[in-house]
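dumping this here so i dont lose it
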């Protein structure tokens, strides 16, 4: 059943922005590491389905050449004073803000998201560039460590770049996921070979182009384009470290192959993120928060919410407020800030969203809002959808939809809400709503997720870039942001200089006398509180 609670449409089908000139597109595609006579692939604009970009496709040989160039450039890049790398990232920060309209147009044209959602990527990358530019030295500088023997052992921890980091980035957040993972790797002195998703390669190439304008030397950041089935093995075989964002199934394969090669990997994978609305929550604020949690970038966001657990005492009031707010959302296509929800990005994603909703409805789910595709607006539009009466036999009950679809479940108490929130192999993000902040934070610590937001959807944790962000369980390995986000791209090395007396007995001292002396010394150190 489809209700009347459907978002307001717009009927405009905009042409591609004037900023996407042939000259700009040629400059960007010219940065792909591919042969002059490479096979070509054409991408389409999600808003309209019209052709967008003609991209050269990299072969395994092209990928190997990219690694050769990256390795040649990495040595001198790593030897560059960190202050110079810092200046390049800060110039990149300024250029991103100055030229943001180009980035916004590219993201909308390639991904189909709204300008509001695209702008959040611009702010995210500016923050990331500034943070690592100004904090990398603190994380990477040599650090004195406590030596084995006080005073006599001088111990230093050094941080060396891994070498060439491979970044495989997705289509859903083409600037945040592409540049956001490459910047700390570069700041740590690595070179990067990156494979962005073909659909949104132009946005990643735009970031690369701006980094060159900011002063990045040639060869340090290489970009290849192609299907994983064609060049994935070559990327893995040449990597010194893997950074991947994508599906859990692909992440498992990358983890397996990285283990075979004994290299590190950081993986941000799928999620089925919960939001808990407690009995003392402000219903109107929670309803507004649910809209922000479920429908940004048409729900194609790894940290967006797909499950709502609402206390029975406020359930009806919350659902009424949530469906009313969802009905007021403006769905459509425009290269301005007037639209609330944009398009899905690929036909495959539209097929998945439609199949999940149709399966749920066929098995008894109730559509409270949305519930249908909107081909009248464009080929890949789907209404923001709220479902009730979702049961475990339905596909979307526990499988990630990755679209503008959320299920609402009443819960008897907090214990049931937490138990149901944790009843999933995923553990990426969660949201808890309550007027009692201290209690909510205490409950948040019991939710099995890498990030948990209190009275916010996801931006509070994501935007707290000084803190780690990543998933538990099937949602991945490793973290981005904070110290973890740059130290993972380094190899720690301990240099210990032993002076005067070491661990062997001095000349002419009996071993048993030496052992007794060390035993007394250890007892004294413990009594003195030495760690």
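and the seq i came up w/
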């Amino acid at each position: 059943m489809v209700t009347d609670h459907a978002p307001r449409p717009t009927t405009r089908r905009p042409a591609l922005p004037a900023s996407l000139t042939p000259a700009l597109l040629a400059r960007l595609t010219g940065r792909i590491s591919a042969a002059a006579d490479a096979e070509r692939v054409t991408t389409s604009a999600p808003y309209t389905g019209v052709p967008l970009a003609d991209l050269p496709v990299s072969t395994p040989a092209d990928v190997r050449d990219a690694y050769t160039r990256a390795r040649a450039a990495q040595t001198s890049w790593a030897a560059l004073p960190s202050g110079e790398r810092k200046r390049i990232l800060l110039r990149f920060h300024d250029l991103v803000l100055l030229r943001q309209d180009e980035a916004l147009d590219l993201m909308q044209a390639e991904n189909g998201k709204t300008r509001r959602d695209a702008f959040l990527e611009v702010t995210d990358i500016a923050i990331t560039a500034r943070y690592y530019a100004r904090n990398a030295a603190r994380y990477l500088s040599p650090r004195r460590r406590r030596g084995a023997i006080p005073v006599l052992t001088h111990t230093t921890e050094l941080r060396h770049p891994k070498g060439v980091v491979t970044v495989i980035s997705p289509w859903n957040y083409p600037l945040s996921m592409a540049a956001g993972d490459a910047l700390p790797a570069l700041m740590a002195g690595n070179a990067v070979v990156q494979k962005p998703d073909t659909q949104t390669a132009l946005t990643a190439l735009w970031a690369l182009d701006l980094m060159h304008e900011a002063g990045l030397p040639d060869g340090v950041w290489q970009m290849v384009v192609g299907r994983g089935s064609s060049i994935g093995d070559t990327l893995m075989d040449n990597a010194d470290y893997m950074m991947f964002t994508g599906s859990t199934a692909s992440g498992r394969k990358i983890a397996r192959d990285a283990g075979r090669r004994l290299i590190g990997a950081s993986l941000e994978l799928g999620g089925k993120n919960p939001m808990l609305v407690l009995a003392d929550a402000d219903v109107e604020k929670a309803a507004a928060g649910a809209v922000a949690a479920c429908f940004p970038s048409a729900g194609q966001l790894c940290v967006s919410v797909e499950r709502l657990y609402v206390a029975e005492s406020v359930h009806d009031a919350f659902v009424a407020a949530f469906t009313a707010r969802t009905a007021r959302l403006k769905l459509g296509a425009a290269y301005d800030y007037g639209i609330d929800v944009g398009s899905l990005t690929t036909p495959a994603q539209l097929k998945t969203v439609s199949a999940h909703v149709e399966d749920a409805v066929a098995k008894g789910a109730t559509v409270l809002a949305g519930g249908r595709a909107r081909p009248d607006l464009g080929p890949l539009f789907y209404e923001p959808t709220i479902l009730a009466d979702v049961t475990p036999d339905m596909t979307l009950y526990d499988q990630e939809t990755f679209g503008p679809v959320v299920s609402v479940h009443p819960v008897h108490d907090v214990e049931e809400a937490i138990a149901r929130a944790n009843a999933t192999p995923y553990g990426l993000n969660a949201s808890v709503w309550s007027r009692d902040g201290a209690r909510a934070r205490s409950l948040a610590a019991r939710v099995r997720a890498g990030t948990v937001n209190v009275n916010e959807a996801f931006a509070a944790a994501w935007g707290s870039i000084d803190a780690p962000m990543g998933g538990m369980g099937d949602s991945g390995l490793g973290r981005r942001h904070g110290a973890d986000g740059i130290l993972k791209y380094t190899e720690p090395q301990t240099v210990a200089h032993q002076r005067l007396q070491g661990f062997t007995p001095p000349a002419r001292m009996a071993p048993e006398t030496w052992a007794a002396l060390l035993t007394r010394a250890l007892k004294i150190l413990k009594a003195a509180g030495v760690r």
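The chain has 17 helices and 20 strands.
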